[in-house]
Amino acid sequence: MGWLKINPRNAVLPPLERAESNDDPRSVAHRSIGSSGSEFSVAIPEGLGFDKIIDGETCPPCTLRDFMNFLLYVEHSAENLQFYLWHRSYQERFNSTTTPDIALAPEWSQEQQDEAFAKLQREHRNGLRRNSAVMSAVLRGTDFSRDGNRTNPGNSLRLSEKHSTRFADRESNPFSTPPATPSRTDELSSTGSRSDAATWRNQAADAFAAAGCPAPFTIQPFRTEIDRVIATYIMDDAPRQLNLSARERKQLLMALSHTTHPTAFRQVARSVETTLRVQAHPNFIRWCIHNGNPPRIKLASILGISTVIGSLVAYIVLCLSSVPRGYRALPAILLVTGIATWWAGHKGICIVMHGVRRRQLSPWEIFGDDDVEMQEDDVSSSGEKGSLGRFASFGTANSYEDQPWVAKYQQRNLVRKLFDKEVWIQEPALRTVHNKIFLHSLLAGVVVGGILTAVFVCVPGGHFF
Q1: Among candidates 372, 367, 364, 377, which has minimal Cα distance to 69?
Q2: How far is it, in rounded angstroms, from Cα 234 to Cα 228?
Q3: Which of 353, 301, 317, 312 is nearest to 334 (CA)?
Q4: 0.85 exceeded by the pTM?
Q5: 424, containing H or E segment
Q6: Cβ atoms within 10 Å of 59's Cβ, excluding its own
Q7: Tens digit of pLDDT for each residue in 414-446?
Q8: Who's near 104: CB < 8 A, 6+ residues apart?
Q9: Strand 358-360 relative to strand 422-424, pairing
């Protein structure tokens, strides 16, 4: 489904700067976007900034709901925004808690985080040394030995016989497969019953044990919710597993084994926010600029190119004829229109739809439920927004392949896709961006058309007919 994929040309991004411990994600985003200003034909206006979208200060098609849909259906990374929204809510709820047990969750300081990072680095270096020593012992006397001693044919034969004996049982049954690792996704449940809490606690305990961390105190505030976060976002094979390195995961689990304070998520939260600001948000704005679906934009580009070719043919015919030079400038109207149409289509805009300030709906909007907006306005006490899966902080994996609209949209023919339902563009900042792109397209058409017209007017006539 072409509508559900980012155009590779528009998805080119500046190199993502790694968020250091003291770097603000906002400054990282400004540096990354600013260093590649040539990649943005129109700068992202402040009205469409990341904070404006998160705070709900934008209109369709640039709302938080649209951002979540983009990450879910287009970029397939909705877990980043889901975790970011949960962490913001968790910070507010934790800081507003006045119960005495809050003292059991001390702040995870920057010094403790640096110490944990240094410890993991030492363990990593020691592990590399041990692995190197083991491999040297295993390869000693072989062709791969570091000392360069080659084995004789007898040793190679005995080595091959040893390996063949070791794997004889496995090769005797070619249909045998190793047992599959049980998935933890099916064990998660969306309800908050006691059995679910026990399941999350057991999964969190397994994650702590795998990372070599001590078991945390279960009497700490919000410990059950932290266990659920680990089971949903942090541990291996989690339904919404974040894209974390093994070192980042261990560092986070070390912090969570000591405290449930929001500062334990400092490193991961900063990394996720940087990814959203530097990668997801610019891609989302590029995607919002498109006012038509891919078939409609391709049709507009084809019409623009066809108009340019037709005007060039008209120029050539007039140059070969006996008509006065002044008539050779008439195809300039078609040339300017064709270049402007093609350039706007290259940027994802259909000029016809821009003239009426409208855009085509996305497939999930065409076949969506009318009650979705009402569901998203309900905020539960646990910080989850409504019963809608994509806005719930916890739930199953972010998958949409089984949703009814996917099959329905695939069955639509090309003509119906060209004339999908249209709606008014409500966001003023987005209309301003469209105006700038249209003016740039028109200016490009006038400049290129003027140069070509001057060339064809100055060419001597052929007088062939």
Answers
A1: 364
A2: 10
A3: 312
A4: no
A5: strand 422-424
A6: 15
A7: 998 898 899 999 999 999 999 999 999 999 999
A8: 217, 219, 220, 221
A9: antiparallel
Model pLDDT, residue 22: 56
Q: What share of the chain is helix, strand, coil (3-state, %, to 5)?
A: 60, 0, 35
Over residues 121-132, the mean pLDDT reads 54
Beta bridge pairs of residue 359: 423
Q: Which residue has the tokens 């037709």?
A: 310
Q: Quick check: 10 and 32 in contact, CB under 8 A?
A: no
Q: Which helix (H) or strand (E) holds 123?
A: helix 110-139
Within 8 A by CB and 6+ apart from 273, the residues are 19, 25, 84
Judge whether residue 271 has pLDDT over 90. Answer: yes
What is d(CA 429, CA 45) in angstroms, rounded to the nearest whole number?
7
Of 47, 51, 79, whose CA–CA distance to 64 is shortest? 51
For residue 301, the one-letter residue type is: S
- Count of Cβ atoms closer than 10 Å to residue 109 Cβ: 12
Taking only the tens place, the pLDDT of each residue in 192-245 is 467 788 899 999 999 999 888 888 888 999 999 999 999 999 999 999 999 998
What tokens appear for 384 in the block?
């989850």
Q: 260: Cβ–Cβ under 8 A, 6 or more apart, which residues?
A: 94, 105, 216, 220, 221, 222, 223, 226
DSSP label of 360: E
145 by DSSP, 3-state: which?
Answer: coil
Contact (Cβ atoms closer than 8 angstroms) between residue 319 and residue 328 = yes
The two tokens of residue 402 are 């089984």
Q: What is the mean pLDDT of residues 274-280?
A: 96
pLDDT for 337 beyond 90:
yes
- Residue 25: pLDDT over 50: yes
Burial 334-357 (b: 16+ CB within 10 A, else e): bbbbbbbbbbbbbbbbbbebbeee
Residue with tokens 């995607």: 287
When comparing pLDDT for 31 and 464, which is higher? 464
Residue 186: closest CA among 175, 201, 196, 172: 196
Domain locations along the chain: 2-97+271-289, 183-260, 291-361+420-465
Cα–Cα distance for residue pair 342/48, rounded to 1 Å = 26
Taking a C-beta distance cutoff of 8 angstroms, is the pair 295, 414 a contact?
yes
d(CA 271, CA 23): 10
Per-residue model confidence (pLDDT) at position 354: 94
pLDDT of the residue at 406 = 86
Residues 6+ apart with CB under 8 A from 331: 311, 312, 314, 315, 318, 453
Q: Identify the residue with better confidence: 26 or 296.
A: 296
Contact 452, 333 (CB under 8 A): no
Q: What is the largest CA-CA distance in the chain?
A: 98
Q: Smallest Cα–Cα separation from 123: which of 26, 278, 247?
A: 247
